[in-house]
Q: What sequence folds into this?
């Protein structure tokens, strides 16, 4: 990732950064679980983990941006469900595969931009808008399709059939490239920095000429684009697409963003962290199986992880006098 | 000598009018609708959501939110069934245990929110995951069945010809309604929602009140779990999934401001009834069940839009624009 | 007015600036010049119109009347950005920074140097920040430090750097030393002098007269929204400035009648809650009004809030009506008979969207209720009493409190706390932002209350009010009581001198 996520501040004496902490945690998990059960660290399993969760990481990129700017979105899981169905349906209906990949991305951006408009121009809190949209998308999807299974997807549809250098499946490569690109954008462009400004101090941002409405619109539209990409990654790894909303997906995405170090109060965090967190959570889920713990504990682990991260963030803020 | 609001506030009056209209329309459209059986059945179906909507109204009036209620319901249901079936608790004890667990879950939310200053939205998203995770982890997705016949009384029995749980809901509505409208506690809720600082400077025990409200929210989720399990006669870890949405939609539709300060139980009840009628009416007229969720979402967004505009218009007529030069405060800010 | 021969052409001229808010004429025909390379102090009591004036210069408010001339050309400043673009930067007391971001980024947010393809040039940003730091001789600040971890003094320097990075020609500083310690004040002065030498004009607002004499070239005094005078500092002295700021006849406004002084009601000994309150001891007696004077930031409100339990004291003891008392919460204080009318009515005193009735009863809900149920008749009666007794001008007790004028709002806050039948009443800036008529009413009320045996502790930044209303004056500085003046010993000069610290 070539230093794309390097913090503006190299002089962070307070603690090692969240990114390194997550990387360490992943390595530690691999080592410990690998010692207990070597099959866990087999290339095949690692590929499975990354492949099956690349879409979570990609969705978490957009979510991180939304949270950094001081908003939240809980409709992303439903949106991904809808867009995956759209993509599968188009593919089966004989549309060119490229369009089946592209249409969901455009659609995702449009839906999220619409939500962003409600937040930006009408001053409705993002939690309410996205809560409403969650049910509209979820109910709309089931009532429109009846939850049918979409099978007989065309051959060229599945992205995972191609690999880079024979070991890196395309979806994983997409995840890495998108993460790097997003990290670079957030770090090195005025628009990217304006997210941090808005989330950090909206009043000061206004004085710096950063308009709230425009920035909120922008961040939701970008988030929608990433949600569309995530939906494509999600759909193309399945042989059969069930046209329902993946349960609790929004929660998994938010967890990745928050555990990745995106501060709950806005203004800080990177997408390198959220991607690492998505990988960590997926690896924990997989490891439960290899050390014979029921996977039904996964969600509890997720909840505990969010809680721990949030409390650590509050503690860090208090210590640094950032509580305003 | 003072005109106490015996008349309904504007928002509730509009809702009531819409409700009557909807009733009339549905009665015309379907002859099965306006029967006592159907109406009672509808009331029965909204009990669980309704019970949770009562404390949620309080939570939102204080300016907070509780997204964990659906998960808390699931956790309590699992604890009820599991402690009875697997740990050998006597069933009444298991019920008590589930209620206590619900209250404890709410207390944890309230404690972290008031003591550590974590925003309610984030805290309850975390426990939304945690409580559901505990339900899944403890139950390992096994369901519990075969409850003794007496256990079904609450969820399936009737009292004076009315479903038993409907009585519970009525009691809860009266209780919460009276507390909000008539007591010091209710007044304090509104004061906190409008201005937490002023409430503190008036000597109101702000943190304790918020703690109580979140605890009540968890407790009522436990009560709803009990009724839910009794009604369907089985315990599953996915019980109550997504209930938070229905609850919040009803409360907000009922006129409780998402920014805190205003709201009534009457409004919440009207919101509940309206949503339930929409669901029922749509299904009676042949719309599939899932489409009703779409309606809830749309109604939620629209009702906020409308009340937002109304609020703005009232605000612009009320406050002097830009409360003049803000006095430079001596201490700068108050540690709340 | 000036005697100097070669006077630089003004950078910014204010011509007949006027501004009114609903119910208040904040500024009236204010005219003066600001020259390049001068430090121009702006003085005036609270409510004199300084804040409004700087908000007009910095584009936050638009003036109703008059015009601004920049380099002799009229300009219209629509919004703070327009002012920044015109080279006018303002540093508010509440610093507007991004705590999670670095110094360099805070300095350049919104106008960062770019490289090809519009990407931000972090290297250039860093070196430009270093150059700015060097030009001001600041050596202990690194461009890559996170701003949230900096001291207040350093954060302020970041704001100054930010202004300079935008080539500000006019820098407005609103009480920049209010939150600074001695060393940081010195460093700020050094920076301001350096800016002046560079030709930057600095408008400097402060309550501390010694700073004006140490730093400023010219001084403009505002009073009641009007321009009193603009003088060269060399031609004025402390007494002259105070005279200009206060100006009015002190006796005319304040109808304090001396009441017999009774037993001590509130006794503090070494009460402390660092850093703002550092060991305070005094007593307030029945029938006595004690004025608490001090500069902004001297710790008066913090002391009041420690007594009242908002931020409970961490050390020292307190006795109320002769008995040892521990106050750990506002509820404790209320039970002991302590009432506090806070300085910020809008956020601390009133729940503005609630009605007059609901506000009037908020502090005594418990006593109005039986088993938690509010006795509505008693509540309505209480509210009606408050309205009648204090002559609140309102359409009725169901009126929304936030819609009333400032004076009437203050009467409700007073009424709300008097309903609790306190023994000690602490008033924090009781007449700030209130028109003259309502002011006199509130003063009469205070006098009556003391006459009936209440112990009153009054915090006020208006020296005439303190002197006119108080039986005794205590002066606070840096969280301590540094002077006490009774009766005729309480003169403007003495109290003022104690406030400023010696001199």
A:
């Amino acid at each position: 990732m070539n230093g794309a996520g390097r913090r503006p501040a190299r002089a962070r004496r307070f603690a090692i950064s969240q990114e390194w902490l997550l990387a360490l945690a992943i390595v530690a998990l691999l080592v410990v679980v690998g010692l207990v059960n070597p099959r866990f660290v087999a290339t095949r399993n690692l590929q499975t983990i990354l492949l099956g969760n690349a879409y979570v990481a990609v969705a978490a990129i957009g979510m991180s941006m939304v949270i950094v700017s001081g908003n939240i979105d809980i409709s992303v899981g439903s949106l991904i469900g809808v867009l995956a169905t759209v993509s599968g349906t188009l593919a089966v209906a004989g549309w060119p595969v490229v369009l089946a990949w592209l249409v969901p991305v455009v659609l995702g951006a449009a839906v999220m931009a619409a939500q962003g408009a409600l937040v930006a121009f009408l001053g409705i809190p993002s939690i309410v808008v996205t809560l409403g949209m969650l049910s509209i998308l979820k109910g709309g999807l089931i009532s429109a399709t009846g939850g049918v299974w979409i099978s007989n997807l065309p051959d060229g549809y599945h992205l995972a059939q191609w690999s880079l250098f024979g070991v890196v499946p395309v979806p994983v490569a997409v995840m890495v490239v998108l993460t790097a690109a997003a990290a670079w954008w957030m770090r090195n462009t005025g628009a990217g920095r304006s997210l941090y400004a808005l989330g950090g101090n909206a009043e000061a941002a206004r004085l710096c000429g950063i308009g709230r409405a425009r920035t909120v619109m922008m961040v939701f539209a970008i988030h929608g684009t990433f949600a569309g990409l995530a939906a494509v990654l999600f759909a193309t790894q399945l042989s059969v697409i069930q046209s329902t909303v993946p349960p609790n997906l929004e929660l998994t995405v938010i967890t990745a963003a928050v555990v990745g170090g995106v501060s709950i109060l806005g203004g800080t965090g990177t997408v390198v962290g959220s991607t690492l967190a998505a990988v960590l959570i997926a690896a924990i889920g997989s490891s439960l199986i290899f050390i014979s713990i029921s996977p039904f504990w996964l969600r509890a682990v997720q909840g505990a992880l969010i809680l721990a991260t949030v409390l650590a963030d509050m503690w860090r803020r208090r210590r640094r006098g950032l509580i305003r | 000598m003072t005109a106490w609001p015996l008349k309904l506030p504007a928002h509730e009056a509009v809702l009531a009018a819409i409700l009557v209209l909807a009733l009339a329309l549905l009665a015309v459209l379907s002859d099965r609708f306006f029967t006592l059986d159907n109406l009672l059945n509808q009331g029965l179906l909204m009990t669980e959501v309704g019970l949770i909507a009562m404390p949620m109204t309080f939570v939102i009036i204080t300016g907070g939110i509780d997204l964990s209620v659906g998960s808390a319901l699931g956790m309590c249901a699992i604890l009820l069934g599991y402690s009875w079936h697997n740990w050998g608790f006597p069933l009444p004890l298991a019920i008590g245990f589930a209620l206590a667990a619900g209250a404890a879950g709410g207390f944890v939310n309230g404690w972290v929110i008031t003591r550590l200053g974590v925003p309610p939205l984030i805290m309850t998203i975390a426990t939304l995951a945690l409580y559901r995770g505990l339900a899944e982890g403890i139950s390992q997705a096994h369901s519990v069945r075969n409850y003794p016949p007496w256990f079904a009384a609450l969820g399936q029995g009737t009292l004076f010809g009315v479903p038993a749980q409907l009585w519970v809901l009525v009691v809860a509505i009266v209780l919460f309604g009276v507390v909000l409208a008539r007591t010091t506690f209710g007044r304090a809720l509104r004061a906190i929602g409008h201005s937490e600082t002023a409430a503190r400077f008036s000597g109101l025990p702000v943190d304790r009140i918020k703690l109580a409200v979140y605890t009540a929210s968890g407790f009522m989720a436990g009560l709803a779990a009990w009724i839910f399990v009794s009604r369907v006669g089985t315990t599953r870890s996915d019980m109550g999934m997504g209930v938070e949405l229905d609850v919040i939609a009803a409360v907000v539709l009922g006129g409780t401001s998402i920014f805190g300060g205003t709201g009534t139980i009457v409004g919440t009840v009207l919101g509940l009834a309206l949503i339930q009628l929409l669901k029922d009416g749509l299904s009676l007229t042949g719309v599939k069940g899932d489409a009703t969720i779409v309606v809830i979402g749309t109604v939620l967004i629209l009702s906020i839009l409308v009340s937002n505009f109304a609020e703005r218009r009232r605000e612009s007529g009320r406050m002097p624009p830009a409360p003049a030069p803000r006095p430079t405060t001596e201490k700068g800010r108050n540690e709340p | 007015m000036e005697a100097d021969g070669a006077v630089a052409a003004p950078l910014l001229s204010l011509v007949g600036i006027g501004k009114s808010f609903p119910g208040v004429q904040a500024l009236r025909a204010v005219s003066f010049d600001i020259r390049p390379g001068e430090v121009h102090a702006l003085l005036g009591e609270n409510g004199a119109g300084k804040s409004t004036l700087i908000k007009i210069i910095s584009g936050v408010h638009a003036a109703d009347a008059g015009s601004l001339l920049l380099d002799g050309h009229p300009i219209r400043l629509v919004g703070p950005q327009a002012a920044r673009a015109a080279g006018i930067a303002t540093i508010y007391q509440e610093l507007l920074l991004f705590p999670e971001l670095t110094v360099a980024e805070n300095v350049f947010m919104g106008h960062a140097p770019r490289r090809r393809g519009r990407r931000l040039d972090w290297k250039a940003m860093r070196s430009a920040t270093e150059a700015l730091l060097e030009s001001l001789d600041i050596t202990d600040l690194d461009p890559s430090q996170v701003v949230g971890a900096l001291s207040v003094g350093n954060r302020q320097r970041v704001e100054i750097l930010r202004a300079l990075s935008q080539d500000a020609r006019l820098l407005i500083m609103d009480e920049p030393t209010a939150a600074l310690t001695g060393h940081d004040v010195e460093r700020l002065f050094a920076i301001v002098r350096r800016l002046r030498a560079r030709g930057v004009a600095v408008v400097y607002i402060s309550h501390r007269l010694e700073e004006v004499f140490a730093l400023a070239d010219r001084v403009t005094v505002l009073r009641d929204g009007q321009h009193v005078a603009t003088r060269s500092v060399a031609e004025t002295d402390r007494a002259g400035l105070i005279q200009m700021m206060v100006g009015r006849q002190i006796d005319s406004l304040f109808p304090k009648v001396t009441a017999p002084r009774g037993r001590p009601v509130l006794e503090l000994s070494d009460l402390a809650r660092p850093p703002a309150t550092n060991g305070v001891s005094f007593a307030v007696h029945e029938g006595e009004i004690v004025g608490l004077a001090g500069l902004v930031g001297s710790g008066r409100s913090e002391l009041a809030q420690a007594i009242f339990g908002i931020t409970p004291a961490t050390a020292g003891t307190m006795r109320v009506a002769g008995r040892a008392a521990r106050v750990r919460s506002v509820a404790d204080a209320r039970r002991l008979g302590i009432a506090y009318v806070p300085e910020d009515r809008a956020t601390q005193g009133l729940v503005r969207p609630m009605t007059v009735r609901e506000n009037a009863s908020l502090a005594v809900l418990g006593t109005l209720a039986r088993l938690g149920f509010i006795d509505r008749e008693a509540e309505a009666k209480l509210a009606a009493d408050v309205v009648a007794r204090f002559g609140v001008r309102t359409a009725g007790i169901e009126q929304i409190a936030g819609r009333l004028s400032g004076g009437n709002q203050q009467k409700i806050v007073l009424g709300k706390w008097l309903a609790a039948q306190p023994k000690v009443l602490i008033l924090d800036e009781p007449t700030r932002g209130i028109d003259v008529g309502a002011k006199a009413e509130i003063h009469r009320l205070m006098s009556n209350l003391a006459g009936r045996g209440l112990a009153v502790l009054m915090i006020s930044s208006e020296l005439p009010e303190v002197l006119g209303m108080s039986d005794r004056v205590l002066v606070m500085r840096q969280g301590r009581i540094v002077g006490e003046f009774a009766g005729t010993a309480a003169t403007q000069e003495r109290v003022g001198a104690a406030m400023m610290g010696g001199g």
Q: What stands out?
A: The two ends of chain A are 34 Å apart (CA to CA). Chain A touches chain C through 30 residues (CB under 8 Å). Chain A has one domain: 18-319.
